[in-house]
Specification:
heterodimer; A: 764 residues; alpha/beta; Rossmann fold; 4 domains; seven-stranded mixed sheet; 59% helix; 7% strand; B: 73 residues; alpha+beta; SH3 type barrels; five-stranded antiparallel sheet; 2 helices
Chain lengths: 764, 73
Amino acid sequence: MTSNPPNPLAGQTEPRAASAAGSHSSNRLVVALVGNPNTGKSSLFNALSGLRQKIGNYPGVTVEKKVGSFTFAAMQFDLIDLPGTYSLAPRSPDEMVAIDVLLGHQPGTAKPDVILNIVDASNLERNLYLTTQLMELGRPVIVALNMMDIAQNKGVVLDPEQISQRLGVPVIPMQAHRGQGLQELKSVLARAETLQPPDQYPHYPEPFTREVNQWRSELQRQRPEMLAAWPVEMIKRLFIDRDGATQERYLSQVGPQAKAELEAARARLQAAQCPIPQIEARVRYGWIKERLQGCVKRSTEKTVTWTSRIDAFLMHKVWGTLTFLVIFFLMFVGLFLGAKPLMDGIDAGKGWLAARLNEWMEPGVLRSLLVSGVLEGVGGVLIFLPQIMILFAFIAMLEDCGYMARAAFLMDKIMSKCGLGGKSFIPLLSSFACAIPGIMSTRVIENRRDRIATILIAPLMSCSARLPVYVLLSAAFFAPFGWWVPPVVIFGMYLVGLIAAPLVALLLKRTLLRGETPLFILEMPSYKWPSPSLVLYRMVERGWAFVRRAATLILASMILVWALLYFPSTDENGHSYDVQVAALEEQIEALPAKEKATAEELKRLEDLEEQRNAMLQCWRTQSYLGRTGRFLEPAFQPLGWDWRIGMAALASFPAREIVVGTLGIIYDEGEVDVEDEQARLALAQKLKNSTWDAGSPRAGQPVFTLSVALSLMIFFALCCQCASTLVVIKRETHSWRWPLFTFTYMTALAYLAALATYQIGQWI
Amino acid sequence: MPSLSELRPGESGCITAILGQDHLCQRLMEMGLLEGEQVEMVTVAPLGDPIEIRIGGYLLSLRRSEAARVIVQ
């Protein structure tokens, strides 16, 4: 407000911006990039900073901090990419980040010297709403008038020069995805130091301004220490955003009694013809209309653009639904099949390296650590990359071409039945391939509670790592009933997750994550061709972010479980199991292959294999994990499991598919390769023949009955035996609280469901 | 007077009021749904909710419960 009295404490309104103050002198300029969603902000950010980008996090919130840099005309620019938003009115601490950064109140982030506001030329009025909010912040504003081509297609005629004069800020026409207008923009940025903060912007009516000033002088009298963090702009937000995040922060600082005073001030404003919140939109749009008078011409009032024509098809009851199914079927198949060769390649590379290490090194702790700990861990990280990159390529394409908003539109009704919104659909669908990329893709969901609810139920979707468990057990125990029974059982396992997930979501939204229903007011952007470079950026950026953030923790968890299975590593005579197994392996290798062996050699070979398997079994059984399994047997018994199954389930904590390999070791089959059908069948036979240990009340009875097999499958359908998922949840929510919660609730759910399955199975 | 959620695809009207004083009202107005603006119901999602509307030169989607706050003539 130009009518504001000069602020006596102006110097103190920049408490944490000391680094920014120094930046003027050193040819270094901090630029904040702000804009509505779907304005090509990411394209502009990438075009300006290229690969010089850093992704981090703002403390205490789940918003990603993206900073890029570039040099131009001997100047160094630091570009802060703020999340796309229609308005600076924050509803949540996450949305508070934008205004905090812009005002220099965000710890660890320099106060911007200049605000770069990207706007959609084809939709100028609505975009300028945010612009007018930025104009009041006392920083120079530069407007990048993007998507000039789309505006032209829509029949919108505008003159950037004229608009610049009317608004009083530099306006640069651009087509960011083609790099047009970039040089002009950079040269304006290079002389940004000579720019003044805008002196014209919308004015609130006098009663409003008076109320704001009174509030501030009152604050100065009573709580002078708060004045710096509550400049005029923040007091305005405090008044207008009823029950918003600004109010929440204010009340947390001065106490809840201030709420009544605040409502009283709002009531006075209401009486003075300044209704809250309507006043802001009226004042801003009124000013924009007045300023743009005669500046923007639309060729006809109702231009039938091709966007509307495509929409008529894509929103159609039949064709729209069909297209939707085809698109997401393709995405899912792409995730499953497209990633397969790459994942096989990673596995093969891992196997090759393991073989080399086994060749070069003497058997012992170090070799085992490298092969079964580090190598498995690194492989375990890399294995997720293909799916993450493929999923984000799809998402980037769908977002950039404008279909993402339509997909949310089509799915909203179904998803809202379980308390979520349309945007939760893609993360949940991708979680059927793997929960890791699924959880990472929840970033498209703006509402924090919805996002967390989606993250928490994503691991309930049956991912591809559960399939080997389902296949092994259903083939072993259900095939005798007919060829069609195992597939039905497997399908049933997928259903278990599908039924549990919405119930859990509903429960969460009614308890832990209770709150107002998030709005679904969504812009349907114009369709356009996706930009290949943007898609590539997103793929690489997401893949790298995963490796950088999750790798160490995933590796650490793999090594931990390795150690629990490795130690103690000597038998009662002090001989190393590892060395003994290796010696047996060497003898096996020395013998000719089974097909070429003579009867005598074959006998010897089988003998040696038996010895090796017995040794492995003995080793694992007395390992720390094996002991834990034995100790916990009473807990497993109600599920119908003996300690072996329990231990295999425990050992599968790093990743579910490990359970097959561990069952192999415990059941004396050696290490079973999940992919090897022969080995799987042999293991299945072993499982069927296994009996309870002597000494147990059920000694001699078979362990695996139908109900035990089912109870184990159900357990795996619902449990969260996947360290990587938990690590990614930690990374995405910035707290250990949610991964711990996920693990606890899923394990409890899995246990109870397995218990019910077994007990009901026994009863029938 | 009917609300925006009661319009049929293809029908349009002039906004006379946005009900309420809360966040929803604020967001609707921020998105350009102001008194005096012309708004058109474009289409309805196959499952009956949400709806797609045209306001000014752009398309918005909102739930019926949200559109019920927008009174049109």
